[in-house]
From TrEMBL, chain A:
<dbReference type="Pfam" id="PF02779">
    <property type="entry name" value="Transket_pyr"/>
</dbReference>
<dbReference type="Pfam" id="PF02780">
    <property type="entry name" value="Transketolase_C"/>
</dbReference>
<dbReference type="GO" id="GO:0009083">
    <property type="term" value="P:branched-chain amino acid catabolic process"/>
</dbReference>
<dbReference type="GO" id="GO:0003863">
    <property type="term" value="F:branched-chain 2-oxo acid dehydrogenase activity"/>
</dbReference>
<dbReference type="GO" id="GO:0007584">
    <property type="term" value="P:response to nutrient"/>
</dbReference>
<dbReference type="InterPro" id="IPR029061">
    <property type="entry name" value="THDP-binding"/>
</dbReference>
<feature type="domain" description="Transketolase-like pyrimidine-binding">
    <location>
        <begin position="4"/>
        <end position="180"/>
    </location>
</feature>
<dbReference type="InterPro" id="IPR033248">
    <property type="entry name" value="Transketolase_C"/>
</dbReference>
<protein>
    <recommendedName>
        <fullName>2-oxoisovalerate dehydrogenase subunit beta</fullName>
        <ecNumber>1.2.4.4</ecNumber>
    </recommendedName>
</protein>
From TrEMBL, chain B:
<keyword id="KW-0560">Oxidoreductase</keyword>
<dbReference type="InterPro" id="IPR050771">
    <property type="entry name" value="Alpha-ketoacid_DH_E1_comp"/>
</dbReference>
<feature type="domain" description="Dehydrogenase E1 component">
    <location>
        <begin position="56"/>
        <end position="363"/>
    </location>
</feature>
<comment type="function">
    <text>The branched-chain alpha-keto dehydrogenase complex catalyzes the overall conversion of alpha-keto acids to acyl-CoA and CO(2). It contains multiple copies of three enzymatic components: branched-chain alpha-keto acid decarboxylase (E1), lipoamide acyltransferase (E2) and lipoamide dehydrogenase (E3).</text>
</comment>
<protein>
    <recommendedName>
        <fullName>2-oxoisovalerate dehydrogenase subunit alpha</fullName>
        <ecNumber>1.2.4.4</ecNumber>
    </recommendedName>
</protein>
<dbReference type="Pfam" id="PF00676">
    <property type="entry name" value="E1_dh"/>
</dbReference>
<keyword id="KW-0786">Thiamine pyrophosphate</keyword>
<dbReference type="InterPro" id="IPR029061">
    <property type="entry name" value="THDP-binding"/>
</dbReference>
<dbReference type="GO" id="GO:0009083">
    <property type="term" value="P:branched-chain amino acid catabolic process"/>
</dbReference>
Length: 325, 405
């Protein structure tokens, strides 16, 4: 084991992949010599050469179109979109192409070798265009997988699983956590199964669910709740598509309550899908309405970020509301 | 010979391919590094008043950039972007326009905005995202905009303004359509200028915007700021062929390349481009060749991707100094006054910074206003709940708690 921050863990997962497959390529804006604006790809160009780790021109639609082609050829395509906010110029290539390659061709062709990495989320005073959490747009698209890690250990294991997975996957990296803390991460290879939620802490009164950077927030809220005598079961969804309804339903059947939190705006956020499914699965076990603590239905602001975000206090208030219903 | 594809068919029997650099587009240069008009060059028609206004804008922006870069280092603002090295390109192009012409900028064009009259206080209010910021504190520092000054508010996603500029310019042209005959007047009064970097010129939006402008004849001036870098990516990893200018030619757009550190060349080119746009209603592309002397932004460290030697080489070619040398030779400027002015501006900037820093942040309701023309019911409800939450926990939200009605 080594101490790594999330960027090191991601770098390590990429390094293993590059060593493993002679045609694996890493590309995106500034990822070459510079190692990416967050330095996730540092040192990899030196190690694997300019033909396999390279800067692209500034064109997200170009990056994803190219990645689709490379992956269709059979090479592991590790594409970086510099900020999740800038994934939208590539939306057509991802939603209409990556996601439908296999289906529309009757599996004559597929882009299972494609992994898209992109930093997402707020909490860095980035305002409208450096803070978005666009997972829900992609969660509406059959054919994609979406994964979000919460710490360095998860990041490496999940990213390796995404790369090995035979489907196009978007790996959303919580940029606020890139350097925020370090954790024990094996230097060698390991994977964490995609599509499985993790019960991070067991509890009996209420299930509290989040993913990515929001995990830290719900853990803080749960700590407050414990002080107030409320026992929280904390779950990290980890994988948004496919998502693990079974683990959540099992937990809610036990606790009778569910609080979901995500940074993206509440309306049609992925929390809505979870709430709908869980109320069907757990209807007779629910003791209170499912609560969602999310971003407002506004773009992500700058000056009033503190007011906007679903912080621990808001999550705590929802936990109380749920328990006291 | 022409055909229905609108291509000139110049039949050949030699199997020859055209090289990407075959166009070899020249670069307009008028002013020498020492401030002399070069042999064979013609100075543009630039009066003393305009010349001095260009100069004072460049000088102001240098001082503002310098101060705000430092303010960011001190943690007083979260982010900043300088236009160091491109002052001449931005200011002289803006100066060649009419006040009512539309400016659609990328983000590094604060000099154009100041030339239009955006005040020191307005800059500061945006940078500190206080309640006087015209953008209501929603965007990161340097995302300026002013309807009054015909300067579209900056949007971070690169290239998005390029096709928008085409559409806006088309609107400016349609203003002159004769309702009866459906004919356009031969002269239009305003154009749109669209600034973007050579990096942004790789975006799909660039190609869409240029193509539409050419086909539909929109009076837009595409101003490509080729400064050698897009964050860490050098121009030779950004495009092949003869710069961005060759793309203009490819799209059938009248194109010129200028030395972007040469105020007179930029002014002359933009003035002429504007004239073409208003008389023909067609787009023009100007490629300015300069060097981004500073870091990309305060989040960037160029020492990781370029050498000090390279930077030093370009530092000696300072656009502000070059223009100043010309002004001195014209006898329009004197050194002592210039120095005194600088000190005065520095003081003003510092004073304005201190004021803006203390102005309170926007009120809570600005979180939900302008998402739609009026908040939709779901948002209104979220807002009421948020107010209630803040009232119950005022200590956790000190910026807004005391001001909630
Ligand atoms: C669509 C999109 N992708 C990526 C970014 C991140 N980004 C911001 S500025 C920049 C470089 C732009 O370079 P260039 O257009 O050459 O302009 P310059 O900064 O050199 O003036 C990048 C990659 C962005 N803002 N928008």
């Amino acid at each position: 084991m080594a101490k790594m921050n999330m960027l090191h863990a991601i770098n390590s997962a990429l390094d293993i992949t590059m060593a493993e497959h002679p045609q694996a390529c890493i590309f995106g804006e500034d990822v070459g010599y510079f190692g990416g604006v967050f330095r996730a790809t540092s040192g990899l160009q030196e190690k694997y050469g300019k033909h396999r780790v390279f800067n692209t021109p500034l064109t997200e639609q170009g990056i994803l179109g190219f990645a689709n082609g490379l992956a269709a050829f059979g090479a592991p395509a590790l594409a970086e979109i510099q900020f999740a906010d800038y994934i939208f110029p590539a939306f057509d290539q991802i939603v209409n192409e990556s996601a439908k390659f296999r289906y529309r061709s009757g599996n004559e062709f597929n882009v299972g070798n494609l992994t898209i990495r992109t930093p997402y989320g707020g909490g860095i005073a980035g305002g409208l265009y450096h803070s978005q959490s666009p997972e829900a747009y992609f969660a509406h698209t059959p054919g994609l997988k979406l994964v979000v890690p919460r710490n360095p250990y998860q990041a490496k294991g999940l990213l390796r699983a995404c790369i090995k997975d035979d489907n196009p996957v978007i790996f959303f990296e919580p940029k606020r956590l890139y350097r925020a803390s370090t954790g024990e991460v094996p230097e060698g290879d390991y994977t964490i199964e995609i599509g499985k939620a993790e019960v991070v802490k067991e509890g009996k009164d209420v299930t509290v669910l989040a993913w990515g950077a929001q995990m830290e927030i719900i853990e803080q809220a749960a700590a407050k709740a414990e002080e107030a005598g409320i026992s929280c079961e904390i779950i990290d969804l980890r994988s948004i598509l496919p998502w693990d309804a079974e683990t959540i339903a099992k937990s809610v059947t036990k606790t009778g309550r569910l609080v979901i939190s995500h940074e993206a705006p509440i309306t049609n956020g992925f929390g809505a899908e979870i709430a709908a499914t869980i109320q069907k699965e757990c209807f007779l076990h629910l003791e209170s309405p499912i609560e969602r603590v999310c971003g407002l239905d506004t773009p992500y602001p700058l000056a009033l970020e503190k007011e906007y975000v679903p912080d621990a206090l808001k999550v705590f208030a929802a936990i109380k509301k749920s328990v006291e219903f | 010979m022409t055909n229905p594809n609108n291509i000139s068919l110049n039949i050949s029997h030699a199997l020859e391919f055209i090289d990407g650099h075959a166009l070899n587009i020249p670069t307009l240069k008028i002013l020498s590094e020492d401030g002399d008009i070069l042999d064979g060059a013609t100075a543009p028609d630039l009066d003393k008043e305009t010349a001095l206004r260009i100069y004072s804008t460049m000088r102001f922006i240098r001082l503002l950039d310098e101060r705000m870069q430092a303010a960011q280092r001190q943690g007083r603002i979260s982010f900043y972007m300088q236009c160091l090295g491109e002052e001449a390109a931005i200011t002289a192009s803006a100066a060649a326009l009419k006040q009512e012409d539309m400016i659609m900028a990328q983000y590094r064009e604060q000099a154009a905005l100041h030339y239009r009259g955006f005040s020191l206080e307005q800059f500061m209010n945006q940078l500190f995202s206080n309640e006087k910021d015209l953008g209501k504190g929603r965007q990161m520092p340097v995302h300026y905009g002013s309807n009054e000054l015909h300067y579209l508010t900056i949007s971070s996603p690169l290239g998005t303004q390029i096709p928008q500029a085409t559409g806006y310019a088309y609107g400016q042209k349609l203003k002159h359509i004769d309702a009866q005959s459906g004919e356009l007047s031969s002269e239009i009064d305003n154009v749109t200028i669209c600034y973007f970097g050579e990096g942004a010129a790789s975006e799909g939006d660039f190609h869409a915007g240029l193509n539409m402008a050419a086909v539909h004849k929109a009076p837009v001036l595409f101003f490509a700021r080729n400064n050698g870098y897009a964050i860490s990516t050098p121009a030779d990893e950004q495009f092949k062929g003869d710069g961005i200018a060759s793309r203009g030619v490819g799209y059938g757009i009248k194109t010129i390349r200028v030395d972007g550190a040469d105020t007179l060349a930029v002014y002359a080119a933009t003035q002429k481009a504007r004239e073409i746009a208003v008389t023909t209603g067609e787009p023009v592309l100007i490629e300015s060749i300069a060097y981004r002397l500073g870091a990309h932004s305060t989040s960037d460290d160029p020492s990781g991707y370029r050498t000090k030697d390279e930077e030093a080489e370009f530092k000696s070619n300072c656009p502000v100094a070059r223009f100043k040398a010309w002004l001195l030779k014209q006898g329009w400027l004197n050194e002592e006054e210039d120095e005194a002015q600088k000190d005065k501006i520095r003081e003003e900037i510092l004073a304005a910074l201190k004021v803006a820093e203390k102005i309170q942040k926007p009120a809570l309701e600005e979180l939900v206003s302008d998402v739609y023309d009026t908040p939709i019911p779901a948002l209104q409800k979220q807002y009421e709940e948020l107010k209630e939450h803040i009232k119950q926990h005022p200590d956790a939200y000190p910026i807004t708690a005391g001001r909630i009605k």
